[in-house]
Amino acid sequence: MTEPVLLVLDYPGRRPEARVSDLRLEEAGYDVRYLMQPPLPRGASVADYTAEALATAGPDNDAAHAVLAYCGASALGQEVALRIGCPRLLIFNGELCTPQVVGTEYRALLESVTGEPVALPDWWDTDLLAEHSGDFLQRCESHLREHVRRSLAEQAGGELDDQDLQDAEEALAPLLDGFLDWLAYLAASHRTDYPDFDAEVISFLSQDQPAVEPWPGARATETVRIATTRDDLLADPTTRRLVLSALDGSGPDDAPAPAPARPDPFDGGSR
Questions:
Q1: Which end of the chain, N or C, is surrounded by fewer C-beta atoms within 10 Å?
Q2: Checking phi first, is residue 80 left (phi over 0); if not, alpha (psi -120 to 50) or beta?
Q3: Within a 10 A sphere around the Cβ of 133, how many other Cβ atoms?
Q4: Which is nearest to 191 in space by CA: 104, 71, 98, 66?
Q5: Is 26 in the same domain as 83?
């Protein structure tokens, strides 16, 4: 018997919060496919980003039983569910990736390089962030690289020669790539219009997490509040029990009929 396929969007970076993998859904007989695996997508829009993620996930994704997404990846999960016509979308502490969120995260990256608060660059604006192009990431890469060089020179008392600088930049290249992976994820999560989704979204929330109700584009949103912390939401036995109930159709509610699949964006441009 073929195991039901679950598609998961959960950013793999370091964090204190438990992960979707902590639900141990494989032990319940599901074929769990984690779409966000290195090398991570760098698509310039939510459609391009999720297309890249799906391309690495293996066969038979169109027959997925459900899509699960954590936090800011909820918009990506919605796009995946629309693309493949999946009727079940489960999100965990789902959040909208606003321009303010992206700006805050970018400043945090800059401060991790410089060791002090840094203002957003003059070219930063919401129109550039909203564009479905690679210009935003290209500017971020140049800006981050400039700050890395400046920080290295300051740490060396301004005495780095070209070879020293090149060696230092090569050593820091994986760090810069990680920064750009994170920014690409944030930009893609922001670059969505939350299109109508003819299915119910089941939103699992920790005890203090603000609810997004209704979830944008969803036909209906069912909120399931778990009496646990944000860090422990995905490791809590109650969460696991209720997720399994939702997946087998016995609750929180039976899943609706399958939604129509979204056309491939590469056939006629992407959002």
A1: N
A2: alpha
A3: 11
A4: 98
A5: yes
As a whole number, mean pLDDT of residues 163-167 equals 75
- Confidence at 253, pLDDT banded by 50, 70, 90: very low
Model pLDDT for residues 100-151, shown as the tens digit of each residue: 999 999 999 999 988 999 999 999 999 999 998 889 999 999 999 888 888 8
The reply to whether 93 and 21 lie within a common domain is: yes
pLDDT, position 83: 92
The pTM of this model reads: 0.88
* Same-domain status, 148 and 84: no
Cis-peptide into 237, omega within 30 deg:
no
Both 169 and 203 in one domain: the answer is no
Token pair for 102: 């992206």
Q: Which of 165, 190, 215 is the last residue of a domain?
A: 190
- In whole angstroms, give the CA distance from residue 185 to residue 191: 10
pLDDT at 17: 98
180/103 same-domain check:
yes
- Domain carrying residue 38: 5-97+192-267
- Whether 212 has a pLDDT exceeding 50, the answer reads yes
pLDDT score of 49 more than 50: yes
